Recover the amino acids of this structure.
């Protein structure tokens, strides 16, 4: 290690920026774009309204419209997709800034277990029988975070 040449801080920054840009354009952007397309298609066909009516009673537990369940469902599969669905629903005026405030911690606490649980735990050689409980814990953390954010919003107003 003592013989390794020191890197210029600018070169390190540029290399990190390149890696970040590559991750954003190859991993995150396709999920976000797909989410925008799916939500727009559901909105045009009226299926988003139907989905909102079906999920409305459950999402009312957090003071959210039924369409917000689409954000949680997308987050289960992909965090980027969850963010894309949330942004798309906000642009469609189905979600308010307060709704987004409630949902954002849930998006990240959900942690897209569909992709990450097998990938990360498989690499660590965790017994597959624990995948289900770990996934349930991710979901419960997300749901609890929405109640915590609801309480915080009540005190901030």
């Amino acid at each position: 290690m003592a013989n390794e040449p020191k890197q210029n801080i600018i070169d390190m920054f540029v290399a990190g920026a390149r890696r970040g840009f590559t991750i954003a354009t190859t991993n995150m952007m396709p999920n976000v774009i797909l989410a925008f397309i799916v939500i727009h298609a559901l909105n045009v066909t009226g299926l988003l309204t139907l989905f909102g009516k079906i999920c409305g009673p459950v999402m009312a537990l957090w003071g959210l419209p039924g369409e917000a369940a689409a954000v949680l469902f997308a987050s289960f599969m992909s965090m980027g997709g969850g963010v894309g669905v949330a942004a798309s629903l906000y642009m469609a005026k189905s979600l308010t800034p307060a709704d987004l405030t409630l949902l954002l911690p849930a998006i990240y606490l959900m942690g897209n277990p569909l992709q990450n649980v097998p990938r990360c735990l498989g690499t660590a050689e965790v017994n597959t029988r624990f995948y289900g409980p770990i996934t349930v814990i991710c979901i419960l953390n997300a749901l609890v975070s929405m109640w915590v954010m609801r309480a915080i919003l009540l005190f901030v107003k």
Q: What stands out?
A: The chain has one domain: 34-156. Residues 34-156 form one domain. The mean pLDDT is 85.
